[in-house]
Predict the structure.
Amino acid sequence: MGKQTFSDIYHVLKDRILTGHYSVKMRLPIEDELITEFDSSRYAVRKAIAQLAKDGLVYSVKGRGVVLLEHTPQTQQFNLALNNLNGLQSLNAERHLDYQTEVVAFQQRIVDQPLSTHTAFEVGIPVYAIQRVRIVDGIRAVLDINYFNAQRTPTLTKTIAQRSIYQHFKKNGLKIAVVKRMLRVESATELDKAQLALGDNNCVGNMISIAFNDEGRQVEYTESHFIPNEFNFNELIRN
Protein backbone atom coordinates (compact mmCIF):
# COMPACT_ATOMS: atom_id res chain seq x y z
CA MET A 1 0.00 0.00 0.00
CA GLY A 2 1.43 3.39 -0.99
CA LYS A 3 1.50 6.48 1.19
CA GLN A 4 -2.06 7.36 2.17
CA THR A 5 -3.57 10.81 2.65
CA PHE A 6 -5.73 11.93 5.57
CA SER A 7 -8.83 11.41 3.42
CA ASP A 8 -7.78 7.87 2.44
CA ILE A 9 -7.17 6.90 6.07
CA TYR A 10 -10.43 8.46 7.22
CA HIS A 11 -12.55 6.65 4.65
CA VAL A 12 -10.87 3.28 5.23
CA LEU A 13 -11.29 3.51 9.01
CA LYS A 14 -14.87 4.75 8.72
CA ASP A 15 -15.77 1.87 6.42
CA ARG A 16 -14.19 -0.61 8.83
CA ILE A 17 -16.16 0.80 11.76
CA LEU A 18 -19.51 0.84 9.95
CA THR A 19 -19.10 -2.65 8.47
CA GLY A 20 -18.14 -4.23 11.80
CA HIS A 21 -14.47 -4.86 11.06
CA TYR A 22 -13.78 -3.40 14.50
CA SER A 23 -15.99 -4.71 17.30
CA VAL A 24 -17.61 -2.00 19.41
CA LYS A 25 -15.74 -3.53 22.37
CA MET A 26 -12.43 -2.88 20.59
CA ARG A 27 -10.37 0.26 20.28
CA LEU A 28 -8.76 1.58 17.13
CA PRO A 29 -5.16 0.45 16.59
CA ILE A 30 -2.63 2.78 18.19
CA GLU A 31 -1.23 5.66 16.15
CA ASP A 32 2.10 3.96 15.42
CA GLU A 33 0.33 0.91 13.99
CA LEU A 34 -1.86 3.08 11.75
CA ILE A 35 1.15 5.12 10.61
CA THR A 36 2.89 1.90 9.59
CA GLU A 37 -0.17 0.38 7.94
CA PHE A 38 -0.97 3.45 5.86
CA ASP A 39 2.63 4.59 5.38
CA SER A 40 1.50 8.03 6.47
CA SER A 41 2.40 10.87 8.80
CA ARG A 42 1.24 11.14 12.40
CA TYR A 43 -0.56 14.35 11.43
CA ALA A 44 -2.62 12.54 8.77
CA VAL A 45 -3.59 9.76 11.19
CA ARG A 46 -4.58 12.21 13.92
CA LYS A 47 -6.59 14.30 11.47
CA ALA A 48 -8.46 11.19 10.28
CA ILE A 49 -9.26 10.18 13.87
CA ALA A 50 -10.39 13.72 14.67
CA GLN A 51 -12.81 13.56 11.73
CA LEU A 52 -14.16 10.21 12.94
CA ALA A 53 -14.74 11.82 16.34
CA LYS A 54 -16.63 14.69 14.68
CA ASP A 55 -18.77 12.07 12.96
CA GLY A 56 -19.63 10.63 16.37
CA LEU A 57 -17.99 7.27 15.66
CA VAL A 58 -15.08 7.32 18.11
CA TYR A 59 -13.95 9.01 21.30
CA SER A 60 -10.35 9.51 22.47
CA VAL A 61 -9.69 8.59 26.10
CA LYS A 62 -6.38 9.74 27.55
CA GLY A 63 -4.26 6.74 28.44
CA ARG A 64 -6.75 4.27 26.94
CA GLY A 65 -6.71 5.01 23.22
CA VAL A 66 -9.54 5.64 20.77
CA VAL A 67 -12.83 4.04 21.83
CA LEU A 68 -15.51 3.06 19.32
CA LEU A 69 -19.01 4.34 20.13
CA GLU A 70 -21.92 1.95 19.85
CA HIS A 71 -23.61 2.55 16.52
CA THR A 72 -26.89 1.40 15.03
CA PRO A 73 -28.94 2.68 12.08
CA GLN A 74 -30.74 4.93 14.59
CA THR A 75 -27.63 6.47 16.13
CA GLN A 76 -26.04 7.03 12.73
CA GLN A 77 -28.80 9.53 11.92
CA PHE A 78 -27.38 11.79 14.62
CA ASN A 79 -24.58 13.87 13.15
CA LEU A 80 -24.09 16.57 15.80
CA ALA A 81 -21.64 15.36 18.44
CA LEU A 82 -21.12 17.41 21.60
CA ASN A 83 -18.92 17.04 24.67
CA ASN A 84 -19.12 18.36 28.23
CA LEU A 85 -22.89 18.29 28.60
CA ASN A 86 -23.96 19.55 32.02
CA GLY A 87 -27.72 19.73 31.61
CA LEU A 88 -30.31 22.47 31.52
CA GLN A 89 -30.00 23.13 35.23
CA SER A 90 -26.38 24.24 34.77
CA LEU A 91 -27.30 26.42 31.79
CA ASN A 92 -30.12 28.16 33.60
CA ALA A 93 -27.98 28.71 36.71
CA GLU A 94 -25.44 30.50 34.53
CA ARG A 95 -28.18 32.70 33.08
CA HIS A 96 -29.82 33.35 36.48
CA LEU A 97 -33.23 32.03 35.44
CA ASP A 98 -35.94 31.00 37.88
CA TYR A 99 -35.82 27.29 37.15
CA GLN A 100 -37.87 24.37 38.48
CA THR A 101 -38.35 20.74 37.48
CA GLU A 102 -41.58 18.80 37.82
CA VAL A 103 -41.33 15.02 37.47
CA VAL A 104 -44.59 13.88 35.86
CA ALA A 105 -43.63 10.21 35.32
CA PHE A 106 -40.92 7.93 36.74
CA GLN A 107 -40.71 4.16 36.30
CA GLN A 108 -38.45 1.29 35.33
CA ARG A 109 -39.40 -0.76 32.29
CA ILE A 110 -37.91 -3.41 30.04
CA VAL A 111 -37.09 -2.37 26.49
CA ASP A 112 -39.39 -4.05 23.96
CA GLN A 113 -38.96 -4.01 20.19
CA PRO A 114 -40.89 -0.76 19.52
CA LEU A 115 -38.92 1.08 22.22
CA SER A 116 -35.67 -0.41 20.93
CA THR A 117 -36.44 0.82 17.43
CA HIS A 118 -37.20 4.27 18.83
CA THR A 119 -34.27 4.65 21.24
CA ALA A 120 -31.54 2.30 19.88
CA PHE A 121 -31.37 0.45 23.23
CA GLU A 122 -31.16 -3.34 23.08
CA VAL A 123 -34.35 -5.35 23.56
CA GLY A 124 -34.62 -6.83 27.05
CA ILE A 125 -32.52 -4.36 29.06
CA PRO A 126 -34.01 -2.37 31.97
CA VAL A 127 -34.28 1.40 31.59
CA TYR A 128 -35.46 4.29 33.70
CA ALA A 129 -38.34 5.96 31.82
CA ILE A 130 -38.79 9.53 33.02
CA GLN A 131 -40.87 12.53 31.96
CA ARG A 132 -39.95 15.95 33.37
CA VAL A 133 -41.32 19.43 32.74
CA ARG A 134 -38.82 22.29 32.95
CA ILE A 135 -40.50 25.41 34.30
CA VAL A 136 -38.44 28.49 33.44
CA ASP A 137 -39.46 31.91 34.80
CA GLY A 138 -42.89 30.43 35.56
CA ILE A 139 -43.42 29.06 32.04
CA ARG A 140 -43.80 25.33 31.34
CA ALA A 141 -41.20 25.55 28.63
CA VAL A 142 -39.55 22.14 28.09
CA LEU A 143 -40.77 18.54 28.33
CA ASP A 144 -37.93 16.03 28.72
CA ILE A 145 -38.72 12.41 27.85
CA ASN A 146 -35.73 10.44 29.18
CA TYR A 147 -34.62 6.82 28.96
CA PHE A 148 -31.49 5.79 30.89
CA ASN A 149 -29.88 2.35 30.74
CA ALA A 150 -30.36 1.08 34.30
CA GLN A 151 -27.42 -1.33 33.93
CA ARG A 152 -24.91 1.40 33.05
CA THR A 153 -26.03 4.31 35.22
CA PRO A 154 -26.04 4.89 38.99
CA THR A 155 -29.35 4.18 40.73
CA LEU A 156 -31.90 6.89 39.98
CA THR A 157 -34.84 8.02 42.07
CA LYS A 158 -37.66 10.47 41.48
CA THR A 159 -35.96 12.91 43.86
CA ILE A 160 -32.71 12.77 41.88
CA ALA A 161 -34.65 13.27 38.65
CA GLN A 162 -36.22 16.39 40.11
CA ARG A 163 -32.83 17.80 41.08
CA SER A 164 -30.17 16.97 38.49
CA ILE A 165 -29.50 13.59 36.92
CA TYR A 166 -26.23 14.72 35.36
CA GLN A 167 -24.89 16.07 38.64
CA HIS A 168 -25.79 12.71 40.20
CA PHE A 169 -23.85 10.95 37.43
CA LYS A 170 -20.78 13.12 38.03
CA LYS A 171 -20.94 12.57 41.78
CA ASN A 172 -21.01 8.81 41.23
CA GLY A 173 -18.20 8.71 38.69
CA LEU A 174 -20.17 8.19 35.47
CA LYS A 175 -18.53 10.18 32.68
CA ILE A 176 -20.69 11.20 29.74
CA ALA A 177 -18.13 11.33 26.95
CA VAL A 178 -20.17 12.18 23.86
CA VAL A 179 -23.71 13.34 23.18
CA LYS A 180 -25.05 13.03 19.64
CA ARG A 181 -27.98 15.26 18.80
CA MET A 182 -30.62 15.87 16.18
CA LEU A 183 -32.90 18.90 16.11
CA ARG A 184 -36.21 19.12 14.29
CA VAL A 185 -39.65 20.71 14.46
CA GLU A 186 -42.62 18.40 15.02
CA SER A 187 -46.36 18.62 15.54
CA ALA A 188 -47.24 18.84 19.22
CA THR A 189 -48.42 15.57 20.75
CA GLU A 190 -51.28 15.25 23.22
CA LEU A 191 -48.66 14.95 25.96
CA ASP A 192 -47.04 18.21 24.81
CA LYS A 193 -50.40 19.97 24.81
CA ALA A 194 -51.16 18.71 28.32
CA GLN A 195 -47.78 19.60 29.85
CA LEU A 196 -46.41 22.64 27.99
CA ALA A 197 -47.49 26.28 27.73
CA LEU A 198 -47.92 26.10 23.97
CA GLY A 199 -50.50 28.88 23.67
CA ASP A 200 -51.52 29.15 20.01
CA ASN A 201 -48.58 27.03 18.83
CA ASN A 202 -49.30 23.59 17.39
CA CYS A 203 -45.68 22.47 17.13
CA VAL A 204 -42.62 21.96 19.32
CA GLY A 205 -38.90 22.00 18.80
CA ASN A 206 -37.53 18.53 19.48
CA MET A 207 -33.89 18.09 20.47
CA ILE A 208 -33.14 14.35 20.45
CA SER A 209 -29.99 13.30 22.32
CA ILE A 210 -28.14 10.00 22.58
CA ALA A 211 -25.39 9.94 25.23
CA PHE A 212 -22.42 7.58 25.50
CA ASN A 213 -20.08 6.87 28.41
CA ASP A 214 -16.29 6.85 28.07
CA GLU A 215 -16.35 3.17 27.10
CA GLY A 216 -18.44 3.99 24.05
CA ARG A 217 -21.66 2.49 25.44
CA GLN A 218 -25.03 4.18 25.05
CA VAL A 219 -26.48 5.24 28.40
CA GLU A 220 -29.25 7.67 27.46
CA TYR A 221 -31.90 8.53 24.91
CA THR A 222 -33.74 11.81 25.51
CA GLU A 223 -36.25 13.92 23.64
CA SER A 224 -36.52 17.54 24.80
CA HIS A 225 -39.70 19.15 23.48
CA PHE A 226 -39.59 22.92 23.86
CA ILE A 227 -42.06 25.67 23.11
CA PRO A 228 -40.94 27.59 20.02
CA ASN A 229 -41.55 31.12 21.30
CA GLU A 230 -39.36 30.78 24.41
CA PHE A 231 -36.20 28.96 23.33
CA ASN A 232 -33.95 29.00 20.31
CA PHE A 233 -31.22 26.73 18.97
CA ASN A 234 -28.30 28.65 20.41
CA GLU A 235 -29.68 28.76 23.95
CA LEU A 236 -30.26 25.04 24.11
CA ILE A 237 -27.17 23.87 22.27
CA ARG A 238 -24.73 25.68 24.56
CA ASN A 239 -25.32 23.36 27.52
